[in-house]
Input
Amino acid sequence: MGKPVQKTNAARLLDAAGISYSLVPYEVDENNLDAGHVAAQLGEPIEQVFKTLVLRGDRNGLFVCVMPGDMEVDLKVAARISGNKSCAMIHVKELLPETGYIRGGCSPIGMKKPLPTFIYESALLYDYIYVSAGVRGLQIRIAPQTLIDFTSAGIYPL
Output
C-alpha cells in the first residue's frame, strides 16, 4: 500500500460542492514537469491530460487556458477568446503569488482569486480528463463538463 494521498485545496473545494472526481498520484520528475511525462506516468493518452496555463492580457489582466498536454497555446486565439488584443504567458515567478500554485502543480480549481477560465473544446470528447490537483505529483480525474461548470469556464475555440 502506498502512502495516503493528501487532499489539496482544489480537492476540498470539489468535496464541498459535492462533485465526483478521483485523485490520482504520479511519480514527479523535477527535470521533466511536462504533460507528456504526467500522461506516461498515468498510462493515459496525452490528449486527456490537460495543462493549466496562466496568461496576462493587455486589456483584461490574468486569465487561464486549460488545454491538452500536447498542444501549444496560440496567443492570438487566447487573446481573442479573453477579450484582449494581445496576451503573454505570465512569468513563472508570478505564478505562486498570483495563483497560489507552482509550475507543474497549477490547478484551474482553487486559485487565490477566480480568474476567467477557458477550456479547450476537445475536453468534451472524453468521459474524463486530468488536471493538476494543485501540487506536483497529483492529478484530478474529472468529467470535463463538471470541470467547465465548476470553474464557469468558456469553451474555445468556438
